[in-house]
Amino acid sequence: MQQLTINKKIQVAREGERDWYASTIQDIKNGEIYIALPRLRGNALILSPGDNVQVRYAEESASFVFPARCLGRTEDSVPLYRLARTGEIQRVQQRSHVRLKTTLEVHYAHQPAPNRRPRYKRAYTVDMSGGGMRLAVNEPVQAGVELLLQFTLPLREGPRKMELKGRVVRLFAMEDGGHHVALEFVDITTAQQDLIVRYIFQRMGEQARLR
Fold first, then answer.
1. Which of 57, 133, 140, 159 is deepest in the core (most CB within 10 A)?
2. What predicted TM-score, i.e. pTM, was given to this entire model?
3. How many domains are there within the chain?
4. What confidence tens digit (pLDDT) does each residue in 127-138 have?
């Protein structure tokens, strides 16, 4: 099955719904795709046999989507959903991952211990996309760490406060002694991603008019 491999990260949405749930492919056999229970902000997507879904995944230069039907759920120690493709894999435009160089103030914090409040620090974006951002910070942050993020999008129709989580995927040491961290958003909703993409395209339109 072209481009589908075990351990590939995917997102699953029930047909007709907008929220995408994160999952991974656990096995592929006999034309069936076995996936971990998709989750969004800790909540599992509940599927019944016969439910239709959309599955999407990203490669380096594009993303892909295909329709599938739930065949059921395994009853092993780790439950999995069994999916069967019902259509072709289609390449889709990476609209949500258009990257914009922009400087926004962001407050970030490490996940606090139980019963403790997060301690936020100030940083600034270097660039942003619907899938993540690069932050200029004063301290190194280890790859794999999840950060709490707070920032405001200055949209044309009014500011929108955002509270997201981001996972550090890469750390860059800068010549001035500072650091840049590349973050991918975690458990971002479609509505939140739409707001970020709207801001990006509004800013791109403004920049084009100034040229």
1. 133
2. 0.58
3. 2
4. 999 889 999 999
